[in-house]
Amino acid sequence: MKIFNEQHDMFRATVRAFVEKEVMPHVEEWEVAGRMPKAVFRRMGELGFLGLEYDEKYGGAGADVMMTAVLHEECARSRWTGSEALKEKYLPAICGGETMTALAVTEPGGGSDVAAIRTRAVKDGQDYVLNGAKMFITNGAMADLYFVAARVEAGTDERRHRGISMFLVERETPGFGVSRTLDKMGMRASDTAELSFSEMRVPAENLLGREGVGFYEVMRVFQRERLVAGLHAVAMAERALEDTFGGPLSDKQAVRHRLAEMATDVEAGRWLTYAGWQKYAAGEDAVREVSMVKLFTAEMVNRVAYGCVQLHGGYGYMREYAVERFARDARLMTIGGGTSEIMKDIIAKAIVR
């Protein structure tokens, strides 16, 4: 079955060349630093990798969603709705890699429960005043622009998802603060931080979409994030297997069988993920399938990580070997973007009526 066309394949070759020449040589350096330099994002903007699906008038490429899938799949191999006015103001710099963004939804004590958001946004004249905190925010310390979820009304026990809105917040806004950067087990080249908002005034025009229905926008974003996570898991596992094949024990039947099982796992994850992307791209309700992608690939990449480290023996436990970092990085996949337990709950609700 043909998933990608010739344009996708050409774009894949371009992204892979970029990753191999401009990313992979610096991975260890960025791991130690705990972040990637902003110059990487500017370079991706120059190459047309950012804002692929946005209209060309905003600096995008007008590409389809499967082009985005190709980008994320290749980048993972490195072992690494607003108003028209807001789009015109911010999108060109975002697509050009000049403005780095961050999605600020998760809160201390909230975890995967988006409806548990406690950050408040109170309307005051032509502004909203935000107070609260966010946790585990990717690009949190380095971003220039933040998409912040806050509660404009309390909601009820039965309908906790009501009253959540999304706001666009510039880094220099008074009252915005980076409380601390977080020292993580894996994905160390990815800047992650805790944020705080204290009497932070945000212009009312920076409200994204309609007031009080931001929960649904967050969920829509999470569907794409979980599909991206599926691609990352598959690409990471595939690269780890490539690094494991051909070792001194690979002629042993027990080892060959272990490799065969892991390769089959990866291939199953790949096609499940592609199917999820296709359904999402067609505009169909894909919540169940996307959750299955996230669940299966996250668990799969951790099985592969364990197996690859085991087959490397003592060397797999050494920092100098890429498989050691892979095992640390893979651990996040069952947690970030919605835990495996949350995915199981979503799937069960979809199939048990």
Task: Describe the secondary-structure layout.
Blueprint: H1 6-23, H2 27-33, H3 38-46, H4 65-75, H5 84-95, E1 101-104, E2 120-124, E3 127-138, E4 145-151, E5 164-170, E6 176-181, E7 192-203, E8 207-208, H6 214-244, H7 253-281, H8 287-312, H9 322-330, H10 340-351
Parallel strand pairs: 1-4
Antiparallel strand pairs: 2-3, 3-7, 4-5, 5-8, 6-7
Helix pairs in contact: 1-4, 4-6, 6-7, 6-8, 6-9, 7-8, 8-9, 8-10
Report a brief summary of the structure.
This protein has 353 residues and is of the alpha+beta class. Helices cover 46% and strands 16% of the residues.
Structure, explained:
- The protein has helices at residues 6-23, 27-33, 38-46, 65-75, 84-95, 214-244, 253-281, 287-312, 322-330, 340-351; strands at residues 101-104, 120-124, 127-138, 145-151, 164-170, 176-181, 192-203, 207-208.
- The chain has 353 residues and is of the alpha+beta class.
- It has a four-stranded mixed beta sheet, with helices on one face.
- A hairpin with a 2-residue loop joins strand 2 (120-124) and strand 3.
- The longest helix has 31 residues, at 214-244.
- The chain is globular and about 75 Å long.
